[in-house]
Amino acid sequence: MKTVKKRRKQNKTDYLGRLKLLKSGKPRVVFRKTNKYIITQYITSKQAQDKIVFGFTSKDLMKNGWTKESGSLKSIPASYLTGYLIGKQIIKKGLKMPIVDFGMVRVLHKTKTYAFLKGLIDSGVEIKCEKGFPDEEKIKGKVDIEKIKLEIDKLK
User: Cβ neighbours of residue 24 under 8 Å, at least 6 residues apart?
Assistant: First the structure.
């Protein structure tokens, strides 16, 4: 009888998916959702040992013009801007183009995951994805996205 691994039983790790990502040899951009925030990290792997190069949460948007009136930090606009933020840092530091790792998050069309992908693509990261993005109205929400994007572009 086969024993199920602990992290698989807890719904935390998909080992087959992880193995495929590691075999590619490319760095990963990891996307995670919590009850309050969107977390994203740029990770490199060497011999299956992950090293986090840098990461951001949607809480970092507060430094770039996000206000409490803008809405939740786990919304579609926050997800888009978090993707845009990490994408700009990847371009600015001249790092290798990554692949996206969604982990155990259900990837459905027109949701936060695709808003994050659209933010990455709009920042200049080369990722192949053409459809499934949320509508522009949903991405903008109550937020002045262009103002926050200008603040992100000014970062060093």
Answer: 99
Phi, psi of 5 (to 5 degrees): -65, 150
Residue 81 CA to residue 44 CA, distance in Å, equals: 23
In this structure, the number of other CB atoms found within 10 A of the CB of residue 107 comes to 14
* CATH numbers and ranges of domains, the chain: 6-154 (3.30.420.100)
d(CA 16, CA 6): 15
Q: pLDDT tens digits for 58-78? A: 999 999 888 888 888 999 999
Instruction: Label the pairing between strands 28-33 and 38-46.
Output: antiparallel
Whole-model pTM: value is 0.88
Length of the chain (residues): 156
Query: How far apart (Å, rounded) are the C-alpha atoms in residues 102 and 98?
Result: 13
Q: What is the pLDDT of residues 9-58, one digit of tens each?
A: 888 888 888 888 888 889 999 999 999 999 999 999 988 788 999 999 99
